[in-house]
TrEMBL record:
The chain crosses the membrane at residues 12-38, 44-71, 83-104, 116-138, 171-199, 205-228, 240-259, 271-289. Belongs to the 4-toluene sulfonate uptake permease (TSUP) (TC 2.A.102) family. It comes from Sphingomonas quercus. Its main location: membrane. It is found in: Cell membrane; Membrane. Keywords: Cell membrane, Membrane, Transmembrane, Transmembrane helix. Pfam families: TauE. The lineage of its organism: Bacteria, Pseudomonadati, Pseudomonadota, Alphaproteobacteria, Sphingomonadales. This is Probable membrane transporter protein. It is a multi-pass membrane protein. The keyword Nucleus does not apply.
Amino acid sequence: MDIYLPIAGLSVNMLVIVGMGVVVGLLSGLFGVGGGFLTTPLLIFYGIPPAVAVASASTQVTGASVSGVFAHMRRGGVDFRMGAVLVVGGILGAGLGAVLFRLLQASGQIDTVIGLIYVLLLGTIGGMMANESIRAILAIRRGQAPRHGMRRHNPLIAALPMRWRFYRSGLYISPLAPLLLGIATGVLTVLLGVGGGFVIVPAMIYLLGMATSVVVGTSLFQILFVTAATTMIHATTTRAVDIVLGMLLLLGSVTGAQIGAHFAQRIKPEWLRLMLALIVLAVALRMALGLGWRPEEIYTVQPA
């Protein structure tokens, strides 16, 4: 059942794209990530031009996040004050990311840069999460309390001025920390078409020391607003948003996010982190192989 994508300039199987949306939505509700870190590579593997995949993925991430946020709000799992600071930083970062995206697009290096950033970022974060999760699981099996290090007393975070109380997260830290984190996430959202959840969730836990009960919901709250702003930026500047592709992805992701949020309450946190780490590492490996593989067709012609 094929459908033509006007911006991508090719026909795709509609059921395959909707299926991608379901899988990514499931991850969104389960792990608190927008799912863009998986959507964009899957679209690229399927043959969608990288620039179109990046711009269109943010549309799908927005929809998946809306569904996931409402599911976690009903359980009291969203710190709105922390989320608001992250959103402000994310929107600022999205503006900066749009400038970088246009510069890379003009230089003709956007495809290579997207691939390299994915491999480095996903490989590093996935390795760190996998190591910590395995240690926690082994400690629990030995009957020991898992060691979490000095998450709540990071010297860099403690040194920042002007502290606020984030009651839902159980923190008393400077708002500059989540603001800077939001800016970094916003840049990644524009450059890679990701919600940034695979970066912001570990950062919330290991840098800010947030209570795990609100990390997933607060992450989705931030992702919702930042990806919505990113979609508008891409639509008005790069003009690479394929609305047909975005709607097909959205169709599946909204349902998947509700299912994922339901199961997130039934799985132990350390196992959730390990599952996410393995998925992140698998995507990084596939992207790395893709950068080195010789394509079947060395030259391709893309519509203007």
